[in-house]
Amino acid sequence: MTTLSSLNTLDAAGFVAALNGIYEHSPWIAQRAASARPFASLAALKLALQDVVDTASEDERLGLLRAHPELAGKAAIAGELTAESTGEQAASGLNLCSAEEYATLQRLNAEYNDRFGFPFILAVKGPTGRGLTRTAIIDTFARRLKNGRADEMAEALRQVHRIAEIRLNALLGVTPSIGAQVMDWAEIIGAWSDADEGLTCAYLTPAHCRTAAQIEAWMMDAGMQTHIDAVGNVVGRYAATDPNAKTLMTGSHYDTVRNGGKYDGRLGILLPVAIVRALHLRGERLPYHLEVVGFAEEEGVRFRSTFLGSSAVTGQFDLDRLDTQDADGVSMRQALLETGHHPAAIPSIARRPEDLLGFVEVHIEQGPVLLERGLPLGVVTAIAGSSRYLVELRGVASHAGTTPMGMRRDAAAAAAEIVLLVESRCSGVPSLVGTVGQLEVPAGSVNVIPGACKLSLDIRAADDAVRLAAVDDILAGISAICARRGIDEKLWKIVEAEAAPCSPRLMDALGAAVERAGVPRFDLLSGAGHDAMQMAQITDVAMLFTRCGNGGISHNPLETMTADDAELAGQVLLDFLRSLSAGA
Ligand code: GLV
Ligand code: MN
Ligand code: MN
After folding, report:
1. Hey, what's the torsion of the CAs at 11, 13, 16, 18, to 10 degrees?
2. Which ligand is nearest to the CA of 201?
3. What is the pLDDT of residues 18-33, one digit of tens each?
4. Which ligand is nearest to the CA of 460?
5. Domain 4-172 carries which CATH code?
């Protein structure tokens, strides 16, 4: 049986022989990595192999890609694949393609080779290692054909490393069981949606309540004392032996955006639950109480105000929000009462800062930074602040055929200018980003000049002064555009969240755990908002990011990660938790 320690102690030729087949027909990778031994961990070995490819010549990298067979290609049909490839392609049922699927794959293979000059490579065992469906493979193939060459080459190489990762697991008999458990749980609750297609889980809908109940059941099974609080947060407590110990909180949100991803928020609940379960099974207690919170609401989808769950925990929940209505005219108070919650008890959820050791949130990165650096994990330095507004523009609806261009008061044309103003004002300034994510011509008709238009603004930056200056300029610009076009504008601020720096003490503790896992510590800013921003108002916070696949896409069903990265994040989280003392 090959082990990490045998790989570390074999002579160089033995090391290369042991890793034969990990990188398809490319023994040079193991040859060059041999001198970097000993490896502290499997993660360190994987990074060393990846580093060899990163520092190889362009021709060598192309050679590595070209050493791979086509998917369900001629070599597969002729039975000429390596044993590893044969098994992988069969695990995804590629050997069982219908005639139509074969024809599609042959066409895609030919188009892809023509366009990029190397074969399409995909780790067909997928994010969990158990195999993608043929439909998923064909969809990915078609999507990646649209990439530019440099991006696609980088993606193909990432897939080569993912294939190597899965093959290394098999070689060393390693199963990322906690990671796979978390992915399976995410899959189960990811299927409960407000919509027929995709994952939408908005505050207090039937899918949301079902998700909360399931998370609570998993927490109970993990050995935690649980309750669902007045705002819908699912709270699991893994108590220390000393009842007077302080509490470390962790968690994230279980609501989603419309048609969102399965890991945004949920990873940060499910991973700690899986870790507590492992602690409980071993009978191991921590020197402080650990609370895992599934925050009920962070995304702002149903009632437009964000952080409903975490603001209740920090004592900042604005009770006036209870009268806010959703698009169907249901008030938040009504929705809470109808789902068995007690809005009047929301203020009692607030925690006392003196009881807390801190808050740590694990979250998928939702961007491409870790992916492009080939790193599984990152330590967050700060979370960008954000300002959000709703804007209503009112012009004059009139006949599209008879109103001369110079006599129009077109609300949508004003909105279009505003979209471009946001884009230009927020371009070229480090960390500043601006988005108009909602844009609507209510009751518009093809042949009517838009008399009204509604839009949203979302402006974020790491530095509050930079964000606020951009907001001032954009609001002034909107007034100027509207004055020039004879449009009346109304604006509502719906979110104002200051940037939240992470605690250097907790960042260092997380960073040290990352390094103990054999992975270099890498610090990065979070452009996305997180519950940790709210929690920073009452306690020290830190965040651990995990790599996001598929180019870093999130708030999209294509959001993905791997069981191996989840496993590593779990190992780091557990090590971090053990490294903290009762006093900090
Ligand atoms: C939350 O996901 C946000 O950053 O909008
Ligand atoms: Mn989100
Ligand atoms: Mn999130």
Report:
1. -70
2. 2
3. 999 999 999 999 999 9
4. 1
5. 1.10.3330.10
Those residues whose C-beta lies under 8 Å from the C-beta of residue 65, and which sit 6 or more positions away, are 118, 119, 121, 153, 156, 157, 160
The domain made up of 178-383+500-579 has a fold known as: Aminopeptidase (3.40.630)
pLDDT attached to residue 97: 84
Q: Which residues surround ligand 2, an ion (CB under 5 A)?
A: 264
Token pair 């909105």 in the structure block, residue: 415
Question: Which CATH number describes the domain made up of 385-497?
Answer: 3.30.70.360
Quote the pLDDT of residue 584: 66
Q: DSSP 3-state helix, strand, coil percentages of the chain (rounded to 5)? A: 45, 15, 40
Tell how far the Cα of 140 is from the centroid of ligand 3, in angstroms.
24
Please, are residues 292 and 250 in contact by the beta-carbon 8 Å criterion?
Answer: yes
Mutating to test ligand 1, I would choose from 310, 496, 530 the residue with most ligand atoms within 8 A of its C-beta, which is: 530
Atom of ligand 1 at shortest range from CA of 528: 4
The answer on pLDDT for 333 being more than 80 is yes
> Where do the CATH 3.40.630.10 domains begin and end in the chain?
178-383+500-579
Distance CA 236, CA 250 (A): 10
Instruction: Determine the average pLDDT of the residues in 191-205.
Output: 98
User: Does pLDDT of 312 surpass 70?
Assistant: yes
Q: Which ligand is nearest to the CA of 554?
A: 2
Residue whose Cα lies nearest atom 3 of ligand 1: it is 529
Confidence of residue 93 (pLDDT cuts 50, 70, 90): confident
Residue 383 has pLDDT above 80, yes or no: yes
Question: What are 135-170's pLDDT values in tens digits?
Answer: 999 999 999 999 999 999 999 999 999 999 999 999
Tell me what the mean pLDDT of segment 548-570 comes to: 97
- Which residues make Cβ contacts (< 8 Å) with residue 446, sequence separation at least 6? 400
Q: What is the pTM of this model?
A: 0.93
Task: Give which of 295, 315, 294, 293 is closest to 306, Cα–Cα.
Answer: 295
Question: Where does CATH 3.30.70.360 sit in the chain?
Answer: 385-497
Per cent of the chain over pLDDT 70 is 100
Average pLDDT, the chain: 96
Q: Which of 473, 479, 482 is nearest to 413 (CA)?
A: 482
CA of 308 to the centre of ligand 3 (A): 13
What is the model's pLDDT at position 326? 97
Q: From the CA of 264, give the closest atom in ligand 1.
A: 2
Find the Cα–Cα–Cα–Cα dihedral 416, 418, 420, 422, rounded to 10°: -150
Residues of the chain with CATH 1.10.3330.10: 4-172
Residue with tokens 């990778």, as numbered in its chain: 29
In this predicted structure, the answer to whether residue 70 has a pLDDT above a threshold of 70 is: yes
Q: Does residue 348 surpass a pLDDT of 80?
A: yes
Proximal ligand: closest to the CA of 364: 3
Residue 41 CA to ligand 1 centre (angstroms): 34
Residues lining ligand 1, Cβ inside 6 A: 299, 528-529
The best mutation among 254, 257, 460 to test binding of ligand 1, ranked by most ligand atoms within 8 Å of the C-beta, falls on 257
The pLDDT of residue 404 is above 90? yes
